[in-house]
Amino acid sequence: MSIGLSVAALVVCIALSLALGARDVSLSDVWDGLTDPSNTAISAIAVRERIPRTVLALLAGAALGLSGALMQALTRNPLADPGILGVNMGAALFVVAGIAYLGISTLTQYLWLALLGAALAAAFVYAVGAVGRGGPTPIKLALAGAAISAALSSLVSAILLPRLEVMTVFRFWQVGGVSGAEWSAMEQVAPFLLLSAALGFAVAGPLNALALGDEVAAGLGVRVGLTRLLAAIAGVVLCGAVTAVAGPIAFVGLMVPHAVRLLIGPDQRWVLPLSAVGGAVLLTLADVIGRLAGRAVGGGELEAGIVTVIIGAPVLIAIARSSKVREL
């Protein structure tokens, strides 16, 4: 039932993304634009121009949803999210520093610096959150992530403010969105996304055992350290690769796994794939809402990253106030 609903929601969001925008087209025009490459009508051209944007929204949303589910399972922290744990901002800081001090300009350079920044930020947040009695508790990790994310954001601002030319390059990327989708960029990040997604799905069973506690998992034959390492690599690479191509998009990885667990329970063998589908649905829908909101106010459009923040902030407050925060 959940799989059927997820697939139906995905199909509806794809149709909306292809049909709605600065110029709305009918579903029959969407079909014509997809199936008849020789059709030169304005509506058909509009549909074809929206295809890469829709594909990037699906890829980025799926990666962020899966990354969030992996991080929440790995840390047993329902507040874990690439944005809240500082992973997004770590990637952003390294990209900004690369633009300002190394003069990077290609997506490949963005990608490797974003992955490096994301990995170092994740390791640092975990190290800080693990200090003291009780180890890396959910609240300590969330606080460490929020504090380090704020510090990294300040460093980004310190680098940008005296460099107007860097700010011009960076400001559109910083917001986070899919409006600048290009096939060449997606081709470069696709191998990273596919390999890290496969790695994440491969550790779904061991993550179920880890939820019972490290000693129980070890007793069941799970290699605890290796499982944590593989899950962390998969989550960080998914987030870092998406950040390189679409900017830091927050809250998708927080909201979607929560909704999925409410629907199907805590079994990671279902939570991980359905979080990927749910993330794709949420980010594609956020992109459509941003286009319509921008058109309603008379110009431009809101990037999907802004829409997810508007939706995600109250969700984060609701989750933080929940008595079930410690139960994951």
Short description:
The chain is mainly α and 328 residues long. The protein has helices at residues 2-19, 27-35, 42-75, 87-102, 107-129, 138-160, 164-175, 183-202, 204-210, 214-219, 224-246, 252-264, 268-296, 304-321.
Give a structural overview.
Helix 4 packs parallel to helix 6 (138-160). It is globular, with a radius of gyration of 20 Å. The mean pLDDT is 84. Helix content is 77%, strand content 0%. The chain contains 14 helices and no strands.
What does the secondary structure layout of this molecule look like, with pairings?
Elements: H1 2-19, H2 27-35, H3 42-75, H4 87-102, H5 107-129, H6 138-160, H7 164-175, H8 183-202, H9 204-210, H10 214-219, H11 224-246, H12 252-264, H13 268-296, H14 304-321
Order of helix and strand elements from N to C terminus: HHHHHHHHHHHHHH
> Percent of residues in helical segments?
over 70%
Low-confidence sequence ranges: none
- Helix run count: 14
Measure the end-to-end span.
24 Å
What is the radius of gyration computed over CA atoms, rounded to a whole number of angstroms?
20 Å
- Give the averaged pLDDT, no decimals: 84
Which shape, going by the Cα principal axes? globular
**How many runs of DSSP E, i.e. beta strands?**
0
Largest sheet: none
| Protein structure class | mainly alpha
Strand percentage: under 5%
